[in-house]
Design goal:
Chains A, B: The active site is at residue 102. Chains A, B: One of its GO terms (molecular function) is sulfurtransferase activity. 2 copies of one chain form a homodimer. The radius of gyration of chain A is 19 Å and the shape is globular. The first copy, chain A, has 258 residues and is α/β, with parallel strands linked by helices. In chain A, β1 (5-13) and β2 form a beta hairpin. Chain A contains 7 helices and 16 strands. β15 of chain A pairs antiparallel with β1 of chain B, so a sheet runs across the interface.
């Protein structure tokens, strides 16, 4: 079992006090991602859910668009390598935009900003489920509470929390969820919740994988909102157990708590 | 004057209420960065301090290491382009690591993780200055308060706040400060304060430009701490006006408030 944090002695200083303290620091480790044995990039990650991360990372960066092409993923922890195998012929340098994101895959292919999105899965979510979803994710985010350096991402389908991942980067955490969907561990007919901000690339990968409800504890940006509108995504910001703020397509949220 | 936010009508939903609300959403715009007329990358940014950003971005990504090579920067807002001119002969593809960062330049060259750092400028900071510095940055962070989608970065030298930038990405905000130093708008003999987390690449660029005191409102990661130790940087986390938590080299902070 890999230790995900390290202890570090710090010095707490205020005008009248000076004391030693022990802080817990999150592990950040570089991993190189290979597609069909060819290296395509490296990322700093929290080493959990690495298989899902590898798949989600390549999808987010546009190396494949169709989930059916995904075949297999293997890890080599010693060398810090993630090997993804997919049925793609050519591995091309993409016209990538480094995004404003807090995460490993803070890059999006320019082509996806212009592309049409496939229709989203048809389902509606009850406000009581939204509340339960948020509470479950926050309850599980123990590492985040201890280190203040981790983003959590949860996935809700069929009335339960089906996926939960954490990472130093908000993108990486979402990539792990998206990768899990691409690997068949969950269906796109659900809702995703992230503790990170919904900038353009965050919303874009959710739209591309077909998630109809995208939620964040915090804000969105102009381009994040634009992509949600174009894809018809229900975009929820400042999501709290007691109230949510719906930025687009509110009709998917049914108030069963009146 | 470019508008940096847009207004958006949202629906606030709680069990017993459903009301319309107007939220302010931050502008996120793609800019392409050119080095000597050659495109080297694109980034989603908040379009302020773009000249500094272009220079800081290229430096962070390892396109140049020596600040004296920098010559000129020009902008084209219509096309979303930043043209940086520097005295570098070859523009090479770098062995970049996409980092866990919340920002445009979430990439670092692998070579910098192994490199020795130049000695840091010799200076110490009073605890009263630390307090004033934090208060001044927080007071200026109006856009962040309004949109919840912006990171601020300030720079302190000669007893005053000399630089202040904001961006959707925490990296971008730091890149703007680092770029300003490289452009001669400030000297490295100072302290930097960011509202974002101090992951590896954040600390690395501060170390490379030679800033001796690096502060954050929030946490650091294992690799961020490692780089600070190697470079001899005074690393301060959870920095608040009333108290700071020093993770490395506390001797640079003098308590004049006892």
């Amino acid at each position: 079992m890999l230790t995900l944090t390290l202890k570090h002695r710090t010095q707490l200083k205020s005008p009248n006090t000076e004391e030693e303290r022990e802080e817990e620091v999150i592990l950040e480790r570089p991993y190189r991602i290979y597609l069909n044995e060819e290296p395509v990039g490296s990322s700093m990650v929290l080493p959990t859910g690495l298989e899902e991360f590898g798949v989600g990372f390549l999808f987010a960066q546009g190396y494949f668009d169709n989930p059916t092409v995904f075949k297999e993923v293997r890890l080599c922890h010693e060398k810090g390598s993630i090997f993804v195998y997919a049925d793609v012929e050519k591995i091309e340098g993409k016209d990538l935009i480094v995004t404003s994101g807090c995460g490993g895959t803070g890059k999006i292919s320019r082509e996806f900003l212009e592309k049409e999105f496939s229709p989203l899965a048809e389902w509606r979510m009850k406000l009581s489920e939204v509340r339960e979803f948020i509470l479950k994710v926050l309850k599980k985010s123990d590492l985040g509470l201890r280190t203040h350096c981790v983003h959590a991402c949860g996935y809700w389908e069929n009335g339960r929390l089906s996926l939960f991942y954490e990472d130093v980067g908000r993108h990486n955490a979402v990539d792990k969820v998206v990768g899990a969907i691409l690997m068949g561990k969950a269906s796109p007919k659900g809702a995703i919740y992230t503790t990170g901000r919904l900038t353009s690339d965050m919303v874009l990968k959710c739209a591309r994988v077909g998630i109809p409800i995208v939620m964040s504890r915090t804000a969105t940006s102009s381009l994040g909102l634009e992509i949600a509108k174009k894809a018809g995504i229900t975009l929820i910001c400042y999501a709290r157990p007691e109230r949510i703020n719906i930025f687009n397509a509110p009709e998917r949220i049914i108030n069963d708590l009146v």
